[in-house]
Amino acid sequence: MPSDLYERYMRATSALRAHDAKCPPCAAERRCAAGARLFESFDRLFDAYQNSLNRRA
Predict the structure, then answer these.
(1) For an engineered disulfide with 49, which of 9, 28, 32, 44 has Cβ 3.0 to 4.6 Å away?
(2) Between 25 and 14, whose confidence is greater?
(3) Contact criterion met (CB below 8 Å) for 39 and 32
């Protein structure tokens, strides 16, 4: 059963990918303001999820 953290991480991943697909600056590896916020959220959740996996191991 996926954890709440995993679900939030996956939602952030989906939101970032959807945004990147529609935003030319973000698709070119630069970030618009909205893209930067989405990436920051994704990055924070990714780190938290990885840390939770490391604690379990």
Answers:
(1) 9
(2) 14
(3) no
